[in-house]
Write a structure and sequence with these properties.
Elements (H helix, E strand, L loop, with lengths): L1 E4 L5 H13 L9 H9 L4 E8 L5 E9 L13 E7 L8 H15 L4 E7 L3 H9 L3 E5 L3 E7 L2
Helix pairs in contact: 1-2
Length: 153
């Protein structure tokens, strides 16, 4: 598995697997190429946007780390990191998320972040379990979402 920073050219393939997650009921946000390019890969507050690919170049997942700014749409404290993780359904349970997080955690440390926040759908057991296994702790929840934070070392 190869980990690297995402490029604009990755937007089409990422969009394809995000749309597969929509069909499976595991994603509610937009999944089109423009969204991937603008909100994930090319976001002005990006610290890192990493992808994992297998030996033939197929994208297995993407993980985004943004620096939270004042008035961000997620309500994350300014100066914290905002994380998003999406694994290609064809690559589920292959350690993609764990490997991506190692890269993201290093980027967070280098950027001087003290906390990273994930906002997860309350009815997304796979995503909730993933963030728990990475060491995130729940600090707020309601019927719609669960907010978890990770203390960067």
């Amino acid at each position: 598995m190869i980990l690297r920073q995402a490029k604009a050219e990755d937007a089409a393939e990422v969009s394809t697997f995000l749309n597969a997650l929509v069909v499976l009921g595991k994603r509610r946000l937009p999944a089109d190429e423009d969204f991937v390019r603008d909100v994930y890969i090319g976001h002005a507050d990006n610290i890192a946007c990493s992808v994992a690919e297998d030996g033939d170049g197929t994208l297995l997942g993407i993980q985004i780390l943004l620096r939270a700014t004042e008035g961000n749409p997620y309500g994350v404290a300014p100066g914290w990191g905002i994380i998003g993780t999406h694994v290609n359904p064809k690559a589920a349970r292959r350690g993609v998320g764990r490997k991506l997080f190692a890269t993201t955690q290093a980027a967070a440390e280098e950027a001087g972040l003290h906390k990273i926040e994930a906002t997860i759908g309350a009815k997304s057991p796979d995503a909730l379990a993933y963030y728990d296994s990475m060491g995130f702790e729940t600090f707020a929840s309601d019927d719609e979402k669960v907010r978890k934070s990770f203390a960067v070392r």
